[in-house]
UniProtKB/TrEMBL annotation:
This is Maltokinase. Monomer. Pathway: Glycan biosynthesis; glycogen biosynthesis. Transmembrane segments: none annotated. It catalyses: D-maltose + ATP = alpha-maltose 1-phosphate + ADP + H(+). One of its GO terms (molecular function) is kinase activity. It comes from the Bacteria. Keywords: ATP-binding, Carbohydrate metabolism, Glycogen biosynthesis, Glycogen metabolism, Kinase, Nucleotide-binding, Transferase. Belongs to the aminoglycoside phosphotransferase family. Residues 11-103 form the Maltokinase N-terminal cap domain. Its EC number is 2.7.1.175.
Length: 464
């Protein structure tokens, strides 16, 4: 009979959050299978090690096991397959294995665990100091293009389960907690987390690793990407009109978002370490960008014609000379990471780039890296409705005008909100924008090949 490992080998690569798309799975091991609730062996938290091209990545799977005939219809879409029963499961010889994130009867235990500070073997459930956590709420999985899996409990909480596991405290929990402690109005309050000790393959040591974060659910939130996309759609529906006259103008929001971003950067610099990069450190930063560019060109050959121009921009950063202030930053900032609530903009997902080890993501960086991320996102919002239609010069000009207007508004808001004026730091800003666009080309090649033209077209336009 099929083993669970075989089922997972077929299932994992098909998941949106699986990072190793495009490469074959050479081996898969279940490194840990924690029964989360004593007496409930049908709910397990798996740490699954996946070997691809000699590299091992670890993923978290909340696994449900039931007798095949007792899987209810509403869980049919979550079934991974039927496999032989684990030795410690006192039940039928064959069980249906399914993604228990979709099973509200199972996920209720996660909330209870957090509320009760449970320790279950090496898995620790914790609530944030002073946070009372309500239990008995039903969860639903948020759908969407995500690197993780987020559950919404009633109207109260979201529980973000980190799918790809990197040893260490997840920056999302770390930075959101730090900002909440200083009373920032621009983040959603964390209520708790789940962690376990996971072995760091590089050091062989086991370190506490964040598995999930429980956070305030922002009920009135509208995704920044959705708002921006609506504005672009309005513009395309008004041929010949400039963005400021087209209705649905986004510039006011972009400006407020810039100010909110500056406030968050200011708070992060106040409560967490800061430093200044001198010329040698800048040269190393530029070298890292070049290394990433080389790897990207090897993976996506369409980048090759632009490599020289991109490299030149990185070298300019390396030779900057003037000191570069660095601090903790968001690290993967874009319109899908911000939501507009009744009270204003709120920043989410301080996790950084999920494909980068947590150790790297905890390093200090220039806040202009986040600014560059958001400017790239304006460019994405302007271009994505043009995929396959770039031969319409009027629409292309409208897209350019929209991105430029919102870019200026965001930078103005950022400077007004107390940040440096991004437009006065062109060399740094450009290098970060190019570096992000290179990252995006690889990201799209792996996850959304039909969108790869978006960053590639921007790189063509940016590098001339
Ligand atoms: N606290 C929250 N309140 C309301 N919606 C949220 C909250 N956290 C996340 N979301 C929604 O879930 C989406 C994905 O969350 P995010 O943290 O960015 O996960 P991922 O790392 O998987 O992209 C966000 O774009 C937002 O729409
Ligand atoms: O939000 P995540 O942490 O999952 O970030 C990853 O996925 C993002 C896409 O969902 C990706 O962002 C890119 O696409 C966005 C539009 O969908 C665009 O606004 C961003 O500018 C662009 O970078 C992000 O890079 C990736 O890490």
């Amino acid at each position: 009979m099929t083993r669970l490992e075989e089922l997972l080998t077929a299932w994992l690569p098909a998941q949106r959050w699986f990072a190793g798309k495009g490469a074959a799975v050479d081996a898969l091991r279940i490194e840990a299978a924690h029964v989360l609730v004593p007496g409930l062996p049908g709910l397990r938290l798996l740490v699954v090690a996946v070997v691809q091209n000699g590299r091992t990545d670890r993923y978290q799977v909340l696994l449900g096991l039931r007798a095949p005939e007792s899987v209810p219809d509403e869980l049919a879409h979550a079934v991974i397959g039927v496999c032989e029963s684990p030795a410690d499961l006192d039940g039928p010889p064959a069980v249906a294995a399914y993604d228990a994130a979709h099973d509200a009867a199972m996920t209720a235990h996660l909330l209870t665990g957090i509320a009760e500070h449970r320790d279950v073997g090496p898995v620790r459930f914790r609530s944030a100091p002073g946070a009372g956590v309500r239990t008995g709420l039903r969860s639903l999985v948020l759908t969407g293009e995500q690197s993780n899996t987020t559950l919404v409990y009633g109207e109260e909480y979201v529980l973000k389960t980190f799918r790809r596991l990197w040893p260490g405290l997840n920056p999302d929990l770390e930075l959101t907690s730090a900002l909440t402690e200083v009373g920032s109005e621009y983040v959603a309050r964390p209520y708790g987390w789940i962690e376990a000790d996971v072995v760091d393959p590089d050091t062989g040591r086991s370190s506490p690793t964040t598995l999930a974060m429980l956070q305030e659910h922002l009920r009135s939130a509208t995704d920044g990407w959705v708002l921006a996309a609506t504005s672009v759609r309005d513009l395309y529906a008004s041929p010949g009109l400039p963005p400021e006259q087209a209705g649905g103008d986004f510039a006011g929001e972009a400006q407020r978002l810039g100010a909110a971003t500056a406030a968050v950067h200011r708070d992060l610099a106040r409560v967490l370490p800061t430093d200044v990069l001198g010329s040698e450190a800048q040269a190393r930063l530029a070298d890292r960008m070049t290394t990433r560019l080389r790897a990207a060109v090897a993976e996506v050959p369409q980048l090759a014609p632009h490599a020289e121009a991109l490299h030149a921009a990185f070298e300019e950063l390396g030779a900057l000379g003037a000191d570069l202030p660095v601090q903790r930053v968001h690290g993967d900032y874009h319109l899908g990471q911000v939501v507009r609530t009744d009270a204003g903009w709120v920043l989410l997902d301080f996790e950084g780039e999920p494909a980068v080890p947590v150790r790297e993501r905890q390093k200090l960086s220039s806040p202009l890296r986040d600014v560059a991320g958001m400017l790239r996102s304006f460019d994405y919002a302007a271009r994505y409705q043009l995929v396959g239609r770039t031969d319409d010069p009027e629409l292309v000009a409208a897209a350019r005008a929209w991105a430029q207007r919102n870019r200026e508004a965001f930078c103005e808001g950022y400077a007004f909100g107390g940040g440096v004026d991004p437009e006065k730091h062109q060399v740094v800003l450009r290098a970060f924008e190019y570096d992000k666009a290179v990252y995006e080309v690889v990201y799209e090649a792996r996850h959304r090949p039909h969108w790869i033209s978006i960053p590639l077209d921007s790189i063509t336009a940016l590098t001339g």
